[in-house]
Sequence to fold (304 residues):
Amino acid sequence: MEPHLQKVTKGTSDIRDGDLVPQRLTGEGMVNPLAVEVERPRLNCSESMSLLASGPGAGDVRPLALRIMPVGDSITVGYTDNPDWNVPFEFGYRSGLYSRLKNSGCPFQFVGTSGEPWEPWDKHHGDPSRGGAVRPALDLRDLGQDHHEGYSGKDIAYIHSIITNRIAVNRPDVILLMIGINGINASSPTQLSQLVGTIVDFAPKVHLVVAQITPYRTYNADLFNYNTAIHDTLVPNFAAKGARISAVDLYTPFLADSADPMSIGSGLHANEINHPSAVLYDKMAQAWFESIMQLGLRKGENYG
Fold:
């Protein structure tokens, strides 16, 4: 089957890197586009160059990019030691993930509509640019890739309240879900299961990668049990029912001893509470990258 090529157009978002403009759906009559059979190829990054157009007008088209929607809280945004911002803002794991995906040759586009300007540029938690004097080393805004669904301070219930709308608007192929640290308690696994159930029912063709979330600076039993439930119960149960779901471990990189869940290393949190350091954000990027590569996305298959 020949690859589906999408003509480059301009819209409400200024997309440069992938030349792909997110389709925004509005109005009370919003429908789920993922419920409609749309021929959309899976992509194998090693094959991506073969998808480039050739012949007359080839410069006007691009391979259909893999649409990746990061979903979560302040850690998805990439907060550091706000509101002081002595630790520079570098988009958290998203910059490292961008670089890895770009180097792999895989056409992709981060998608999300968490507000314009997106957090943290709304300055609700201090000014990461320090009056415009500081810019990230790799500025995803310049590349049209600063799109996400990260919301500082929000919990599972909040993400559950918006998720179907955000899926319909952003039409992701892959969702990177990292949520739960805010308000973590014994009932959090049940809340997450309900959220995941909503996602897989609403968008069964989307691949959902669920993170075993990063730790607080000190050990939290509810958080560890939450991660255990993700790995041992939630993901296997949904996968057994046919859901496109997998897990990624973002907890273990913080441990001095991988066999000891209480051995959370020192100096690994930018704010000494919950926001990762630059080094740990990069390790998270690697984990996310490997989880995406393991999906086996290939052209020629109906996906998303």
Remarks:
- The longest strand covers residues 66-72.
- The first helix runs from residue 74 to 77.
- Helices lie at 74-77, 93-104, 156-170, 188-202, 221-240, 278-293.
- The chain has one domain: 5-293.
